[in-house]
Amino acid sequence: MSKRRVAIIGCGQLAQMMAQEGQPLGVEFSFLAENGENTDCVKGLGTIVEMEPGQDPEALYQALGRPEVITSEREQVSVDLLRSFQPFCPVYPDPHITEKAQHRLREKRALTDSGLPVAPFAAAQGEKELREAVDQLGYPAFIKSCENGYDGKNQWCVKSAADLDAAIPQAGDQECVVEAGVNFACEVSIIGARSASGEIKAYPLTENRHRNGTLLLSTAPYDNPELLKAAEGYLATLLKDWDYVGVLAVECFVSESGLIVNEVAPRVHNSGHWTFVGPEASQFANHIRAILDMPLGDTACPVPVAMVNMLGVDVAPKQDNDGVWLYGKALRPGRKMGHVILQDPDMDQLRERSEKMIEELYGEKI
Length: 366
Ligand code: AMP
Hints:
By secondary structure, the chain is α+β, with helices and mostly antiparallel strands. The protein has helices at residues 13-22, 57-63, 79-85, 95-101, 104-113, 126-137, 161-171, 225-241, 283-291, 347-362, and strands at 4-9, 27-33, 47-50, 69-72, 121-125, 141-145, 155-158, 175-180, 184-194, 200-202, 206-211, 214-220, 246-255, 258-265, 305-311, 324-326, 336-343.
């Protein structure tokens, strides 16, 4: 049987893990490197095509080996580029979804259009509108630029008039969303896949902890059947409303009034890296299965599992673990260098071991 081919836009660790998990399914990969991006993560995993400015999409499609489907490892990708490939093959997730996810206001409106609860918010640009929005929503508030914001970047938590005075010049004239601060017990995410013919499977809820706005620890399953049901409902609604194909992650706050959606990621997600170890099929395998319209793999996770991110750390830990993934990137402070997975039938033990793992990796409790 001839091999099936998928092209991935992006050459980072998510592309690497999609290819590693897709190859055993008999799939070949090619990668598109944009703007001179580093390709170390995907070396040896398939053809790498360096994109030249203004290059003809058909020539790029040919250079990528005429893939059956094109996908992306990130949402910060040119929507025009994605659309330029559509005459040649399907692009999943569809560019209309990427366009929403790239812009916080469009994203919030799309979420509310689908009936999902989000924090009260207002659009604001420039000092006058920012002050009016914070006035209306109260403290604490989060000012977030609509574009180029991820891992807590380009956003300001304002708890007082002094914080607001300091944030206004930083936000400048960018288009922003101002959100009311949500009082939450913890943050969770749900990850699921929808195949081209409409099959849907979701992983258990994952509890997430961040360090300086970047994910540090994910633990699954977050054992709350009622919230799981709500999260599965949100996920299925978006997958269907957006006619989504591939893996989608939905990040939520656990508040007193239930789950409030913070944001979505139209791709495989860092809070789902633990799926390498728990379920039969990882999120990476299921993304590839979904976009090639293969039956989705099992997502059940009978044994609790945790993932600790290695942020600016690239030395494998000595403590007992169920796998260390090192992405092969050059070390930089705070950079996602790899992750460690731990599994334990006893959730309390798992939490304790995760804390010890963090302490070993970072040399301190976090
Ligand atoms: P984001 O870039 O939107 O994922 O935000 C980064 C982090 O800021 C989140 O993981 C939360 O911890 C916090 N955060 C963002 N928005 C809010 C909000 N409306 N209320 C409370 N915390 C928030």
